[in-house]
Design brief:
The protein is mainly β. The protein has no helices and 14 strands. The strands form four sheets. A four-stranded antiparallel beta sheet has the order 1-2-3-4, with no helix packed on it. It has a four-stranded antiparallel beta sheet with strand order 5-6-7-8, with no helix packed on it. The protein has a four-stranded antiparallel beta sheet with strand order 9-10-11-12, with no helix packed on it.
């Protein structure tokens, strides 16, 4: 079984395009076969140019991916944030696919499977073990438990309400 999550880049939130920035309009596809890196799983992010149809590898196990589930651009558009359930981390990737650890077990991350940002730049991470949504401030300070629910997907409505797929709750 192959699961693919598609993330479309949002041109509106990006600063002026310059060398080394993500290209506005490019599509990033999170591709994995459900097996973590230690079981020889295929875990990679591909970048697609929709104008030409060309695609290429953006990041994979060599770049620190183990079992990536969800991803989103940071509010400033400068980094691609990825939740990695395989090694219980949240990482940021710059346009050159250089990854940096953002959160890990020391921050309460355990089995992250969903990710979203609100208008103020807070980062919400859906944890699978224990089942809860963690909220991290834009300045990178410590996170807090936002809700004790199982969330396989997170998205904000225009009203600011956070919706969590896999649950029947809205907060």
């Amino acid at each position: 079984m192959k699961c693919i999550v598609v993330l479309l880049s949002a041109v509106v939130s990006w600063p002026a395009y310059g060398q080394g920035d993500f290209v506005p309009g490019h599509i990033f596809i999170n591709e994995f076969n459900g097996e973590p890196c230690w079981k020889s799983g295929v875990n990679r992010i591909r970048e697609i140019d929709p104008l030409t149809g060309e695609n290429w590898l953006f990041a994979d196990q060599e770049d620190g991916l183990c079992l990536n589930y969800d991803m989103s651009f940071t509010p400033d558009g400068k980094r691609l944030r990825v939740v990695d359930v395989g090694d219980h981390t949240v990482k940021d990737f710059d346009p050159q696919a250089d990854g940096a650890l953002v959160y890990d077990a020391g921050d309460g991350i355990s089995g992250p499977i969903a990710l979203a940002f609100d208008r103020q730049g807070y980062c919400y991470v859906g944890n699978s073990s224990p089942a809860r949504i963690l909220k991290f401030p834009p300045d990178g300070g410590p996170g807090t438990t936002f809700a004790n629910v199982w969330a396989t997907g997170l998205a904000f409505a225009p009203t600011g309400d956070l919706f969590a797929a896999g649950t029947w709750e809205r907060r």
